[in-house]
Amino acid sequence: MPNTFGKIFQISTWGESHGAAVGVVIDGCPPQLEISAEEIQAELDRRRPGQSDIVTPRKEADRVEILSGIFEGRTTGTPISLLVRNGDQRPGAYDEMKDKFRPSHADFTYATKYGHRDHRGGGRSSARETIGRVAAGAIAKKLLGDVQMRAFITRIQDIAVPDDALTELPTLEQIEATPVRCPHAATAKAMIERIKAVRADGDSVGGVIECRVQGLPVGLGEPVFDRLEADLAKAMLSLPATKGFEVGSGFGGTLLNGSEHNDNFENRDGAVRTKTNRSGGVQGGISNGEELVFRVAFKPTATILQPQSTVDTSGQETELIGRGRHDPCVLPRAVPIVEAMTALVLVDHWMRHTAQTQTFPS
To answer: 358, 344, 237: which is closest to 8 by C-alpha?
Structure first.
């Protein structure tokens, strides 16, 4: 179903931006996992609005409520239902958008496809839907145990972290040190200045988030159609405002010859490793035990506070100025969402790999 993700570890998100609440139902989570509301809340706090002066000022506590599937601090093996109530609702700010389509937004496509849409903040197409993903991702992260996962911003518009500046996996403290969630301090400062400048003009900017994962085993991925990078691409491109995905060398690899691009194997301390990891930790759709590395491109926020030409529901040309509260750049709050979707893909593939390779009793 279109609102469900995963094969064994499945999530189904629900809710709209200015409805009563949003949430998620998780099915397939193993029993006996110790997890608390506080652990889930910590991830939601990284994603919530109003956390800094470079994101939307919408004031939401985003407090998670556990409705089922967790008892006395442990999962029961039954479906887990998590709910977050919408508090700071201002649907009146979107009255004009009931009859006018926002350029580059989902308004026109939703209205044409379904013949009926929730115009309040984009309804189901709003990034507020990702609350359910982040809540579920907190549980998936706990299942992954010692796997190290970090997502962070490497570029805002034309401001980018210098090549080879981040040779080591950034710590969470380095990433969270600034509201832009870029672990390179000088670049982060320039990014923040750019976001504030475009916000002052009623405009928006996009950029790139990189994600690195260490500690994965060899063997995650199901060729042919469920290759690990294919499912990661689907997960990332299902996020609002995403426009591109690349793993390892990505599009840059097209500039190299095969002799330059191939990962050369070597034996290090009794383990097979690669010298360059241009594959990004995936070969033939299966994890190879190296660091998983991929990047996701996010477009500038579609809703801006400037006059734009558009059409209304009757097809007449008109003008629209965005209203309400919007991120001038979605990337700072998208970092924990990228991590959540990564964790969901990896847990699902780990479970599938275990089920496929498990020997049945004789």
So the answer is: 344
Burial of 322 (0-12, 13-18, 19+ CB in 10 A): buried
8-state DSSP, 327: -
How far apart, in whole angstroms, are the C-alpha atoms of residue 182 and residue 94? 32
- The whole-angstrom separation of Cα 4 and Cα 8 is 11
pTM for the whole thing? 0.94
> Which DSSP string corresponds to 246-271?
EETTGGGGGGS-HHHHSPPEEEETTE
**CB-facing half-sphere around the CA of 175: CA atoms within 13 A:** 24
DSSP letter for each residue of 241-252: TEEEEEETTGGG
Q: Which tokens sit at 23?
A: 């949430």
4-357 CATH fold: Chorismate synthase, AroC fold (3.60.150)
Q: Which two tokens stand for residue 165?
A: 């500046």
SS3 assignment for 93-137: HHHHHHCECCCCCCHHHHHHHHCCCCCHHHHHHCHHHHHHHHHHH
Query: For the segment 99-155, what is each residue's pLDDT rounded down to a tens digit?
Result: 888 888 888 898 888 888 887 777 788 889 999 999 999 999 999 999 999 999 999
Give the distance from CA 220 to its chain's centroid.
Answer: 20
SS3 235: helix
In the chain, where the domains are located: 4-357
Residue 362: predicted pLDDT: 61
